Amino acid sequence: MRATVIHGKRDVRLEEVAQPRLSTGGDAIVRVVASCVCGSDLWPYRGVTPTDHPHRIGHEFVGIVEEVGPDVVTVKPGDFVIAPFYDCDMTCVNCLNGVSTSCLNGGWWGADDRLGGFADGGQGEFVRVPHADGSLVATPGKPDASLIPGLLSLADVMGTGHHAAVSAGVTVGSTVVVVGDGAVGLCAVIAAKRLGASRIVSMSRHPQRQALAREFGATDVVEERGDEGVARIKAMFDGVGADCVLECVGTSESMDQAIRSTRPGGTVGYVGAPSGGSALPIRPLFNSNIGVNGGVAPVRNYVQELLSEVLSGAIEPGRVFDLELPLAEVAEAYAAMDERRAIKVLLRP
Amino acid sequence: MRATVIHGKRDVRLEEVAQPRLSTGGDAIVRVVASCVCGSDLWPYRGVTPTDHPHRIGHEFVGIVEEVGPDVVTVKPGDFVIAPFYDCDMTCVNCLNGVSTSCLNGGWWGADDRLGGFADGGQGEFVRVPHADGSLVATPGKPDASLIPGLLSLADVMGTGHHAAVSAGVTVGSTVVVVGDGAVGLCAVIAAKRLGASRIVSMSRHPQRQALAREFGATDVVEERGDEGVARIKAMFDGVGADCVLECVGTSESMDQAIRSTRPGGTVGYVGAPSGGSALPIRPLFNSNIGVNGGVAPVRNYVQELLSEVLSGAIEPGRVFDLELPLAEVAEAYAAMDERRAIKVLLRP
């Protein structure tokens, strides 16, 4: 089969790789219907994290179950399934506590030491899924083609935006600021609106993303950053800042922006993988009772809750995909996201 | 009148100072009935924070209102009142948001730039209280002498322990670890039990404090620290750690202990003023979705909720005072706490 391999900085290639095979009894082979490029895929692509040797890449996909091992009971061949950006058993204590990203037996796509051998990356034609019963969620019946992007968003960005909002404690009447206008930030706007926020500020300088944020429920847009951005936010919210600030970038600058935009006693919900700055400044957090909650989003725990709203059209997170390409053009997909020509690119094998 | 003045490292003296006078219309003069020494008073006492010039010290007291300004409406001469360890108006947006320590008009006892002039420290005979309507809470009638220690604890340590528990999200059935066996840590045990924790571990090496922790509701005591302490805690809680860890010390070592004792998806509630280590390590927090909430405790917002339980005897935080001295022996009070001969010392003018 064909799958994406990263060789180094700005060098991703679609290559022939071995066809995956069932190997543990509890795994499944899924034929990928749609996958995509993640903002975090851009770090190795840009060389921010080095690529020591060529390896498979991609971790978001939806597809059709082709085969299952004899121990699998929750999905069967022919099912349309959503996979989270990691695999998990959904039976260990961490999964049951709602934190399936800390599954005691789970792992990451594309790793070569996964239960039963290699677990394929998502940017390919097929994926071997360890813990199929835990990892995969089947839709009721085969979804309409128009729903594929929305379903794919449940593999990562919609669940991650939701996690930012949940972690920040967004509830009915909350005032919310979203730092970041990428796919996750835009999904965080959807999540904040869905949870009942009374006012949602999108911090964005990009006209197209501002427009989508407003369609998703943002009531305000702030283009300023740094001290000016903080001043704008404070002026909007009683001079003190917002109840909940959703940090959806992952740099030390964005975290600083988030903390300083939060009112005393408010909460930062963060989901941007920390790519810069290894520490949080404790004094300003302590002095103003600003909480910091979040982390790598346990999206598997949120699939069921969000799935019905995607299927009904109540939320449309699939709109963050503003470019669709055949898998053969995966290199162009990376380039388009790298150059910010696309918010998020959907790939079809 | 007499009041305590710190001159430098291990040098506190009771001295004659000016009698406080009403000056703003909204202030009150309170005759101190009981005050105490705080763990945070030991920092300047030990020279950890330098004392550049002699200044008043002390910030926890209860007393009788002697005089009020013409604008004061909620307390009157003769009332027995509890003051929080700061003053606040309880009408600004932060106070209304439950974070009176961030009062837009409030401040700290012993500061010489406070509204209307000097605001006395608590370790003296009288205190001028700015924002008397906001800061002071009168008890219903004159309390029995036996209740004075418990009422005094609402000025700081009981409210602070409660804040740790609330910030960590302790609720019915939570598993809880308390890092710190000082007065705040012991009050945090009371708070965790009161909020319904199913299991409460006190991390303590001090037999007398262990005993009191158990009487307050601790189900377990762990003496180990560092890696061994973490291993003990994980072994007690499904191999992953506790739901809620209450950090009641304020050193980088205690925060590290707290974070590593928390299960994935769990929360550290911290109230120890950060005295060492200026930063929180974001990667382990992110990877395991461990939240960090808390800060300088807005105890004024908790007085009403806790007062009735102190008055009824349902909770007995006053038992953290294990030494009582006349104000004239304030130097000995500091020494007893410095040398850990006492958990907390109550002073009577």
UniProtKB/TrEMBL annotation, chains A, B:
A GO MF term: zinc ion binding
Superkingdom of the organism of origin: Bacteria
UniProt KW keywords: Metal-binding, Oxidoreductase, Zinc
Enoyl reductase (ER) domain ranges (all copies): 8-347
Pfam family for this entry, one: ADH_N
Presence of keyword Metal-binding: yes
Cofactor(s) listed in the protein's UniProt record: Zn(2+)
PANTHER family attached to this UniProt entry: DEHYDROGENASE, ZINC-CONTAINING, PUTATIVE (AFU_ORTHOLOGUE AFUA_2G02810)-RELATED, ZINC-TYPE ALCOHOL DEHYDROGENASE-LIKE
Family of the protein in this entry: Belongs to the zinc-containing alcohol dehydrogenase family.
Protein name from the UniProt record: Zinc-dependent alcohol dehydrogenase family protein
